[in-house]
User: Fold this.
Amino acid sequence: MLREIFEQPEAIEKTIRPRLSLEDSRIKMADEVNIPAEELRRLNRINIVASGTSRHAGMAGQYMFQELAGIPVEVDYASEFEYRNPAIGAREITIVITQSGETADTMAAQRLAKQKGSRTIAISNVEGSTIAREADGVLYTYAGREVSIASTKAFSAQMAVLFLFAAYLGEVRGQLSHEALKSWIEQLLVLPQKAETTLESSEPCRRLAESFQHAEDFLFVGRAIHYPIAMDGALKLKEVSYVHAEGYPTGETKHGPNALIDENLPIVMVMTYEPGNPGSLLRYEKNLSALRGFKNQKAQVIALASENDKQVPALADHTIFVPQTSELLAPILEIIPLQLFAYYMAVIKGLDVDKPRNLVKSVMHE
Ligand code: F6R
Assistant:
């Protein structure tokens, strides 16, 4: 798992680089998407269906598609998809996200979507996997084989490819100007290096795990596109260290979980911000206020903050820094320290981090 966490800069680079056309500042994806531009221009909705960590990538993707391509997105658990009788119609596509390409629930959801007349796009890490073969278009993540049961490098590569697809759709649909696309491409080019820098949090994360090794419950919180990262941080901790953890939208803590919050419930808060982005700055202010509230309730707070932030470290008990980037790309960096924290928690407890009990790499039966 540690090796795969450290392979993330390369996984992101290999997933992003071949799809960037630097001469004309465009995203090269038409062949892989394999759906005519005319049809993509007419889309009314995107459905994203996946399981576990892949669904968390889809949740982050929702913000990317809505912001860059102006298309409403619904995200479903593959295992729940059929139960809500999904009203899929014309002018929609269904994106199925799956590292293995063999997950039974996701495959069943894909078949249902097709049966209802939807085109499907698969995002998979395994070439020629069943789900990839059954899709109209396939966007591969080039993370390399992922062996450890907990998904790490495939997750960041999934978010990277979702971002590229959202930007591609934004361009095809005339939502994203040439200048905007150029600026995104510049940011994508430096993302692998930023992931490398984020890996420097490994030693601070190990020390954190040492301090918190006896904690029995954790709450992970984030707002907007950072909420799926809180969800995945909690999932990683549960599955590899067997410590109970929940992911929650920060603002929702007022609606129930606050009753639990005291010195025995450490809270991991995702609190990065993007300078010059009013929405992000507003969320940052709200996060500071939530952090003060948690401290008043005596909670121990571990914060993920943007490098150079002075306010968060003054309030939180522990701060892990991540490099500055745009809010839509930040999740790709933020997940790294949370993976490292889960990893060290498991190792300190003497657990087999690569093979957590009761889990398999691909869930091939419903
Ligand atoms: C968690 C994890 C699982 C998988 C899920 C879907 O770390 O690995 O939650 O994400 O079983 O698997 P794929 O992506 O292969 O469909």
User: Anything to note?
Assistant: The mean pLDDT is 97.
